[in-house]
Every structure is written in structure tokens, then in C-alpha cells.
């Protein structure tokens, strides 16, 4: 019984390989081969990155007699990637699985369901861990010329580490499930946890260089820290040197921890699975109704759509956080910015240009309009049957992106102008360019979506994460900014065009693009929207 | 109120609706019956302006759906067979959204929401997200949202599917009340007993073509509607 459930779970976890999520159909042989090839290439690429990282660490550390520290550090990297890669899957597959009710209603022991679910999480974590640990071990073996005992130990360490990743993922998943079963609004929790993960991820990426430098300069200091903070990892490192007593200690620690977590999960799995998913029944209290105009009502509807979907917010509105973060960093790191500005002595007019490009680049991370037509999905009939024109609906979709971009960007622009103190003319040109760019990108994203809408999705991750329009809006924005920078470079090189003239010219180009796109949306786009069907 | 003249809708090579003409007057309850895939939903969607059609003309209160769809939509309400509503809104938010679009003033909307939500026993659930609603609750919400702007024409596709017996009964009563005020109702159904008891007129469609229409007495004579329908289907 458990075997069948595990098979089902693994098929579900890895269905993205053989199934097209847009159509729900299995890929044909050619499509499957291409897809597998793409992912082999992607994973190979990532493995090469970790191989290079391992290669730069392994030699110096092994030479200094800190081979165990190398294994421990690569273990931490593998563990982080494994947990980061599988934690989003853990909560969903352990406690919010769509087939929970179905499986719980069948004559299956809860234990078998839990084991099958854990196996899915384990497989996901192992996949990510191997991306780090396989190249790490290859590099290690190249430096230490291992005997059979060391090789066996290392293989067992990889397997044990994957069990530890599973344990950590379960703990995080359990905390999320427990907290959200007590809270009314799970969406906020999902967004906050995801943001915390992103913040941690970017912090680690940002400080990785410094950490490596510190490590190579003072490996003994780092060794003491690891021994003190993460003693089991120290034992794991020693185990990789073929010390079996250290291996037994590490194995014992990992397995006992997993046993405890498994025991807790088994006790609470049923209760958490059938919990009311946090939707405590809200009591309706009749209040005085407030009316709104049609444009306002449509915009409000788009705002609800955005703020009620963590996936939509995290994938199409992450730029809001980055814009605010950039503004705060500008204020906090004023000294660093001032020293950077010294590089522009003699080219002061370029400061506004660089700032404009940077702000535009960040705003492209907000692309709410790009999946907004597809997101109507099976609800498309509502707007089509109501007495509103397609253009009114499209304006609301544009409005969402423009407003949610403009509010934080205004704060960033104020900070930029306060810190950088550009010439008076740039004080006007910089915000004008940014505003025109934001409008143009919103119109561009919406146009892309109207050209290739997908209303047949069953999971909203499809239009939000896997649609051509979102990809085009995000990367297209970066390409457009890069193209404008390149054009400025050429114009300066061959015609010595000044930044001011370029920015003024750019505004004209952006204004023309805005007019053209909005005109298309108003006429053809509106017609397309009014006749869309999900049948 | 609703005038369909020689409506033809073609999908590829198939004529889903072929040369169909119907006339629904104010205050009439008009039933539309036919087997699965006969062309009922296609006709209904064309009347609501959701679906383009190749030939013919549809007028609502004298206004062409093709030429002035927005004016037509202001006068009608549509309840689909499968009420896919905005899952991300609460029931009350959805009703307010629909009321805003139709420009229903605060007092009227409050009074109507109160009246119909109480009638369909949905008041206590209005603060709940629609995603937590059952099919029947969504159907009730779709019905309330259709009544909130007092439309002149109500078009319904299988309105009784998913409703509990009490809600079904209430809907039938409401339909009668609305007709008494001059509202026209055009609806499709597979429940022939309901059509027989409820409708003033009935139309039977087969493979896209209208095979019979008229007052209930004209269509069924002394037989039951079920017998007439089955006989016509076999021809």
C-alpha cells in the first residue's frame, strides 16, 4: 500500500518533467526530450557553479588540514539549497495537498499517507542537495585520494544529509501549517515567509564573497566557530575523513532528530490536515454601503485580485520590496553613495542617467499587468457580460501596475534626488522618464498577454509564473533598458550627445511608444478582450 | 424585450445555431429546452453579448446587441450554468462590485442585498470568501447579483442546477414576482416538469434548429411536455 502511495507521490512531485502544466497533457516524445535536455543543461550549469566554488575552497583547506571544514561548509551549502528548494513544496504537499481528503477517506493508515508525502519531500531535497554534494565530493576525492572506507563514508554522509534536509523542511512546513491553522489570513503568512526566505537568500548571496575571503584568510577561526555552533557538522566533516566513530555520532544525531520529528508529525498530521485551513468563518455585519464609479470598482477588483494571491504578489510585485529597499539603502549608505559619486567627477550629468536606468530596471520587476488577462481564467464571462467596455477593464489592469509601481518609486525618486542632488533640469527629467517607462512597460506587458492569453489554467502559477507574457515583460524590460544604455553609449561615442539631450530624446521615444501601445490596447486590445473565450 | 431573428452561429463547419428566431415579451417566462449540445448555451451567450455570431440579429428592448452591446448589457442579467465567480472576493464584496458597475445607489443596493440574501439564506455567509462557497451557494450569489440592478431581462442557463429544494422554490416564486413587474425571463433547463409549471412559453431546439415554439398549451396540447419533447427528439 505504502509503495503505491510513494509511487503516486513521486509521479506528482516530478510531473513537471513529463506533463505540460498549461494543457495538463503528457508531453510528446520530442517535447519530453527537449525538456529533459533543458533541465539537464540547467542542473549541469548549476553543478558547474558549485564545482568551481568547491574547487576554490577544497585545495587550501585540505592543505591546511581542514578537510573536515570543507565537507562541513559544502554540507551547509547543500543543506541550504535542499531546504530552500523543497520547503515551498513541503507545506503544500504535506498539509495542503489537493488529494488529502480523498486519501484520508480511503481505507489507508494515516502513517502510509504521511510516509508517501515525506518521500516526495525527501526526493525533492535530495535532488537539490546532490547538485552541491556530488561536485563537492568529486573535488574532495581529487584532493585526498580516498580509500574505500572514505568513499563509503562520504556516500552515506550524502544520504544522511538528505535525511537532515527532510527533517528541517518538515519542521519549517510544520511551523507554517501550525501557525496558519491558527490564523485567519494565511496569505499574509505565505507572503511574509516567502519574503523572509528571499531576504535570507539575497543576504547570503550578497555576503558569500566576503565569507569566502574570511574563511580562506582564517580557516582556524572558522573551524572553531563551526565546532562551537554546529558540532554534528564537525563530526560529519571528520566522518568524511574515514573516521567511523564520528560517522556513527553524526548518523545517530541525524536519525534521532528525524525520529523525533516523525513522531510529532505522525501525532499531528491528521489534525493539521483536516484543520479548517485557517478559514475561520467571518461573521457578516451589515454596514452602510459605499458606492464607487465603474473605473474605481474595476481598479478595486484588480487590487483585490493582486493582494489576495501570494503567488501573484511574490512573482509580479516583488519589485515593490526592492524599490523600497533601494530607497532605504540609499539613505542608510549615503557615505558609500557619496564615494561612488566621486567616480563621476567631470561626468556629473551621467549620474541622473545611471540613476534613471537603475530605477527603471527595478520597476520592471513589477509586472502585474502581464498575466492579468490570463488570470481572468474561467471568470472571464463576468466582465464580458457586464456593461463595461474592454478598454475600461484594460485601463484598470494598467492602473494596478502603474499605481503599485508609482507609489514606491516616488519615494525612491525623492531619495535619489535628495542624495544625488542632480541639476535642476534632471529633477524634472528623471521622474518624467521613469513615469513614462512605467506606463510603457505596463502597456507592453498587457499587450503581450492579450496576444497570447491562457484562460484554461487550473493552477494560477501557470499564468503567473510560466506564461510568455510575464517572461517577455520581465526580461523585455531589462533588454529595453540595456538597449537604451547601449544607444546612449553609441550616441556619446560618435556624436558626443549629452546626457540631458539623450534623456529628453528618450522621453519623446517613450511617449510615442506609450501612445502607440495604449492606442492599440484601446482599439484592438479591447476587441480581443471582449471576444476572449475559455471554452 | 428579447428579439432573436435568424440567429446563426458557426463553429468551424458545424452550425451550432441555425436560423433561429424567438421573441420574448415583457413579463413572459420563456423556457428553452433541448438535448445536450443542441445549441441552448450558444444562443444564450450570443444574447448576452459574450459570443459573436455570424448571421442574424438580436435586440434587447429594441437595441441591437451587435451594434450597442453596452446599452443591452445594462438592461440584462445573466446567470451561467456554472457560476464561476471571483474566488478572491467575499460574497458581499462581489455584490458591491456588481452594484457599482450597474450604478445602483447605496440605499437601493443595501435594501436589495438585505432582501435577497435573507430570502436565499445567504446573509450569514456574505463575509466569507467565495472560494469557501459550495456550488449551491455560488449559484445563490449569482442569482442575487443578477437581481441587484433590477434588470428588464434575465437570461439564465440551467438556473436550478445545484440549488437546494427551498432555494429552487424561492427562485421560482421570485421569477413569478419579477414577471408581474414586467421583467422578461428567458432560461434553459433540462427539468421539463419545472418548465411545464413555470413557463408561459417554451421553445424546443434540436441540433441548432428551432423545432417548436409557442405558448405552453400550443406546444404540449393535452400531453405532458416530457412526452412532446421525447417525441420530437425521436423524429
Supply the number of helical segments of chain B.
9
Low-confidence stretches of chain B are: none
Bulk shape of chain A: globular
What are the secondary-structure elements of chain A, in order, as H or E? Answer: HHHHHHHHHHHHHHHHHHHHHH
In terms of structural class, how would the helical and strand content of chain B be classed?
alpha/beta
Beta content of chain A: under 5%
Average pLDDT over all residues of chain A: 87
Pfam family, one (chain B): ABC_tran
Domain ABC transporter (chain B): 2-232
Protein name (chain B): ABC transporter ATP-binding protein
InterPro entries (chain B): AAA+_ATPase (IPR003593), ABC_transporter-like_ATP-bd (IPR003439), ABC_transporter-like_CS (IPR017871), ABC_Transporter_VariousFunc (IPR051782), P-loop_NTPase (IPR027417)
Short description:
With about 525 residues, chain A is mainly alpha-helical. Chain A folds into two domains: about 270 residues, no CATH class; about 240 residues, no CATH class. Chain A has 22 helices and no strands.
What does it look like?
The complex is a heterodimer of chains A (about 525) and B (about 240). Chain A has about 525 residues and is mainly alpha-helical. Chain A folds into two domains: about 1-275, no CATH class; about 295-530, no CATH class. Helix content of chain A is about 80%, strand content about 0%. Chain A contains 22 helices and no strands. In chain A, helix 7 runs antiparallel to helix 8 (about 185-215). The longest helix of chain A is centred in the first third of the chain and has 35 residues, at about 30-65. Chain A is globular and about 70 Å long. Chain A starts with a helix and ends with a helix. By secondary structure, chain B is an alpha/beta fold. Chain B has a single domain (about 1-235), classed as P-loop containing nucleotide triphosphate hydrolases (Rossmann fold, 3-Layer(aba) Sandwich). Helices cover about 40% and strands about 25% of the residues of chain B. Chain B has nine helices and ten strands. In chain B, the strands form two sheets. In chain B, strands 6-7-8-3-9-10 form a six-stranded mixed beta sheet, with helices on both faces. The longest helix of chain B is centred in the last third of the chain and has 16 residues, at about 165-180. The two termini of chain B are about 30 Å apart. The model of chain B has no long low-confidence stretch (mean pLDDT about 95). The chains are: A mainly alpha (about 525), B alpha/beta (about 240). The interface between A and B is large, with 37 and 44 residues.
